[in-house]
Amino acid sequence: MAYATNKADIDDAIYALRLRLKILDLIRKAKSGHTAGSLSCIDFIYILYKHILQINQKYIHDPNRDRYIQSKGHAVEALYIVLSEMGYFDPQLLDTYLGFCSDFIGHVTKKVPGIEQSTGSLGHGLSLGAGIALSGQLNSQSYRVFVLLGDGEMTEGSVWEAALFSAHYKLSNLIAVVDRNRLQITDTTDILMKTEPLADKFTSFGWHVVEIDGHDITQLKTSLGSPPSYKDKPTVILMNTIKGSGISYMENDITWHHKVPTDEEYNLAVNEIKTKIQLMRA
């Protein structure tokens, strides 16, 4: 669940809680979606677009804009909701989600305004981000590139090839963020294929490593908003999260990887979120 201590961050945490219900609304209407994985990264995506990314929506293809690549493409519901809230497109377009011939499909697609690259085949987003970051350095451009990866896709060899490449070319304008919720579609990441200790692995590859609580709004703002700590290294933020975060009966439950809430479950979620918001305002 999103949480914070100062008023500005509490306001953002409350907003992020409300976004969780919008994710459920989207999934319920379409009768399909990646529920729990979207909830584990919604705080990050919201803070990134609200406070961090330097993008002029009136000139969306500005060559100096910051870039965001969502390698974890199946958590598209979180991204669609944030983009609609930030004004990248009319929220009513989400009524077509998963509909016949709709641009709003079940994985990240660049047909949707505000999305840089289509993803969904796991393990390729970091390579895309590394190439874009290298291009920026070669052309003396100041933009930053953020890439969100799921911890499950850290088993892909292409991720580590990109990690090696990024360190070799000193891509200090590249920030990888790992949604470390420790669950995949059928079991825990440790059981399916252990990738820990991730911090040691990235350090050995030549990266600057930061570990945070991915639901702490203050930590998200600080880690994402800070200038690169090293001028000759890429940065990875290992974001410890909870799959299904914010809705207690979904948290750390693998059955919610791709599941639609019933009316009863939805009402439970609504009441729980409302209660949490009231407590945060108290």
Write down the Rg: 18 Å
Q: Order of strands across the biggest sheet? A: 1-2-3-5-4
Series of H and E elements: HHEHHEHEHHEHEH
CATH H-level name... which superfamily?
Thiamin diphosphate (ThDP)-binding fold, Pyr/PP domains
Topology:
Blueprint: H1 7-30, H2 35-52, E1 67-70, H3 76-85, H4 125-138, E2 145-150, H5 157-168, E3 174-180, H6 189-193, H7 198-204, E4 208-213, H8 217-225, E5 235-240, H9 263-281
Helix pairs in contact: 1-2, 1-3, 1-9, 2-3, 2-8, 4-5
Characterization of the model:
This protein has helices at residues 7-30, 35-52, 76-85, 125-138, 157-168, 189-193, 198-204, 217-225, 263-281, and strands at residues 67-70, 145-150, 174-180, 208-213, 235-240. The chain has a five-stranded parallel β-sheet with strand order 1-2-3-5-4, with helices on both faces. The chain has 282 residues and is an alpha/beta fold. Helix 8 links the parallel strand 4 (208-213) and strand 5 (235-240). Helix content is 42%, strand content 10%. The protein is globular, with a radius of gyration of 18 Å. It has a single domain (7-281), classed as Rossmann fold (3-Layer(aba) Sandwich).
Give a brief outline of the structure.
With about 280 residues, the protein is an alpha/beta fold.
Key structural traits:
5 strands; globular; 282 residues; Rossmann fold; 42% helix; five-stranded parallel beta sheet; alpha/beta
